[in-house]
Structures are given as structure tokens and as C-alpha cells.
Amino acid sequence: MFEAGATVSNQAARSFMFENFEPHKLEEAGAENANDAAQTVHANAESPEDESAGHLTLDNIGLKIGARLGLRAAPGSAMYSSRVIGFSTPGARRARAVFITQPVISGHQPLDLARGEKVELVALTSRSVFQFACTVNAVCHEPFHYLILSEPGNIRRLRARKFVRMTTRMPAHFFDASSEERTPQLGLIRDISPFGMSLAVAEPSAKLDDRLHLSFRFNTDDTDVNIDCDAIVRHVQELDAQGINGAYGLEFEKLESSERIALKSLMAEQI
Length: 271
Prior knowledge:
The chain is an alpha+beta fold.
């Protein structure tokens, strides 16, 4: 949250910090936030689009090795997380198969599946979000636990809004990019997408179209990502009658492609 030796300069900022964070329990808070984020991302990608764009197949949905998958064994059941690890080569009498890691979910045992079971999957690719069905062709345990699935069928493109937001509780630091005063203030990222965020603040003082400089960090694919960028204020939520709940709606002015990909990866991990 802060570098060693940093000072929280005023009472409003100190009150905001202790109301919104637990500085001595960051790891516990992070685990809870990951579960909240998983529910939010799944809820934001559930409506099929018009299929008039053409027949969807494994070849044209952009599914690649390393892609994150959400998998569930029955409609309405919990969504587990998996990853594509390979594809078989199709033959004259052999359809293509998809190899995936054993599905897991935080706080539960890995999902045990049997040959012949039908499963539903959701994949976030570089092209869109897709839902499809597969049959478990084989359950393998050597050299590690993985599944072999049939070629995807009943593929549907899901409606994914440009500004899909993932609920989270990440700390961020910010200051007015046009001011000579560059002392970072603490904010709470309440939701985020590759295009912007909602940032709760102790005392909202910026105006519409002001520019804020943001710094925040997260971990995705076991890699620590630090983002420093400017964002434009698109909405200001003033403090309520209790003097709390001030927030900014921010649009990223410019992100490096690697930073945007990292944010997409973070969201894909929570499918």
C-alpha cells in the first residue's frame, strides 16, 4: 500500500485508509477479493450475441495454448478455473481434441470428472468471450493431472461490453497531473477494466475532464505488474451526508499494450 517511510498526512486520509483497508491483513483481504472478482466477471459475460457473423469453430475463435478457461460440470454449478495446454492434430477419422489442466477453484478440492461427462466452458480470447460445450474424452494423471476434451461444440459468442468491470479492492495512489503538488493520495479501486476504473477517494476535489496520474499494482500469471498512467475524470461522486463514499469514474488516457493485456489477463483469471 505504501513504500517504507511514507507518511499519511491528514486525518481524512487516515480515516479513509482504515475504513477501506486492513493494513495488517492484506493477504487475507486479497483472497476474499479474488472470490468477489470471480463472481463479478462471470456475471458480466452471460448473454449470447447475434450469431449472424458466421459459424464459430475452434479455428476461428482464437483459443490458444495458455488461454484461461472457466469450466462447470452442470448448469448453475460453480465455475472452476483451468488453462489450455495443448491441441491434438486432427486426422481423416479423428476430430481435434483440447488438452486442459485439472479445473480448480479457491477453497475447494480440484474438480473430479469422469470420461464421458459433458462440461460447459467459457473462454476469454483476443477476439471475444465464447461459451461452448465439450465431452471429457480422457482423465489423465501422469505426468500430472490433466483432461482431454472433445472438439468444442455449440460455440456461442457472449456479449462483452467494452467497459466490462471487475469488482475489486485494490489500493492505488494518485495526484492531480496538472498541479505542481505531486504528493500521492491513497484511493481504493472498487472496479476496473482495461479501459478505466471506479476510484473511491477520501476527499474528491477534481472536476470533470481533469487529469489524474495513477499508480497501482497487481499480480497476474505469477508476475507482479506495476502501472503508472494518466486517467481522465469522467464522473465525480461527491461525499454523501455522512462524509463518505466519494469516488471518481476514470477513463485511462493511454495504456501500453502490455499493460492492457495484463489487465485482461487479471480479469481472465477470475472467470
